[in-house]
Amino acid sequence: MSVTIKSPREIELMREAGRILAQVHDELGKIIRPGISTYDIDKEGEKLIRSFGCEPSFLNYEGYPASICVSVNEEVVHGIPSRRRILKEGDIVSLDAGVIYKGWHSDAARTHAVGKTDDKAAKLIEVTRQSFFEGIKFAKAGNHLHDISNAIDAYVRRFGYGVVRDLVGHGIGSRLHEDPQIPNYGQRSRGIRLEAGMTLAIEPMINAGTWKVSWLDDGWTVVTRDGKLSAHYENTVLITEDGCEILSLL
Ligand code: MF3
Ligand code: CO
To answer: N or C: which end of the chain has fewer CB within 10 A?
Structure first.
């Protein structure tokens, strides 16, 4: 396994990629409403990404057919946008997007409520988001990678939710997926030692019920086995000597 350390110039390009991706997510958040199709969300996302002079990194990645992964309710990740899938009041929708700016990647995901959701759905979205921030409290040169993983899992378990185990976060840079893999559970003091200049996509995927997931016949869409809701939150972060910098948030 080889984990790349980015140079100051590379970090500056990844900062710009992240800033752009943060804006793409902010804009996409504004169009989420009952009645919109997941296809329209993808098309708007692709347009936004290109308007910033970036390429959508997911489009055609291992055959994935869209720019934005749009996953509704019990869909965990990698939902395929469709004209027939119309969001309705009370749904939750996870948007995962990746951009390439001058050869450098950023990857981030947000989960939104569609109109008004019940308290249960809102809580899942908020705990999933917070679990990322609990994790990155340990994102710092000298710590172990799984200190982050353990913190995410420990926080989420308090709420009785299931932490998805079959999918993980990842290193990121001139490629979308680099070493190391970053599970959202694990033992403290395990995993590689973090170094300044590493860039990581940390992405808790949290289920309201069981952690177990299945794949649909389309070969992409991951769903919860029990049909309960799932949420996703992700940012690209830079490890520094005294902590980390979140690159894909404004
Ligand atoms: N953010 C996801 C990941 O990190 C989505 C990429 S899958 C793709 O793996 F195929 F849609 F690109
Ligand atoms: Co990712």
So the answer is: N
Residue list, CB under 5 A from ion ligand 2: 107, 201, 203
Separation between Cα atoms, residue 44 and residue 243, nearest integer Å:
34
Cα–Cα distance measured from residue 191 to residue 169, given in angstroms and rounded to the nearest whole number: 13
pLDDT tens track for 72-120: 999 999 999 999 999 999 999 999 999 999 999 999 999 999 999 999 9
Domain contains 24: yes
- DSSP structure class, residue 116: S
Domain CATH number, residue 134: 3.90.230.10
Which residue has 């996870």 as its token pair?
94
Q: Say how many domains are in the chain.
A: 1
Q: Among residues 135, 138, 180, which one has the least CA distance to residue 153?
A: 135
> Which of 64, 99, 106, 218 has most ligand 1 atoms within 8 Å of its beta carbon, as the pocket-test mutant?
64
What is the pTM assigned to this prediction?
0.98
φ, ψ dihedrals at 135, nearest 5°: -60, -45
107 pocket-lining for ligand 1 (C-beta < 6 Å)? yes
Report yes or no on 61 lying in a domain. Answer: yes
How many angstroms separate the alpha carbon of residue 78 from the centre of ligand 1?
A: 7
39 vs 172: CA distance, rounded Å = 27
CB 140 within 8 A of CB 52: no
39 lines ligand 1 (CB under 6 A): no
Check if the beta carbon of residue 76 is closer than 8 Å to that of residue 226. Answer: no
3-state secondary structure of 234: strand
In a domain, 2, yes or no: no
Separation between Cα atoms, residue 146 and residue 167, nearest integer Å? 15
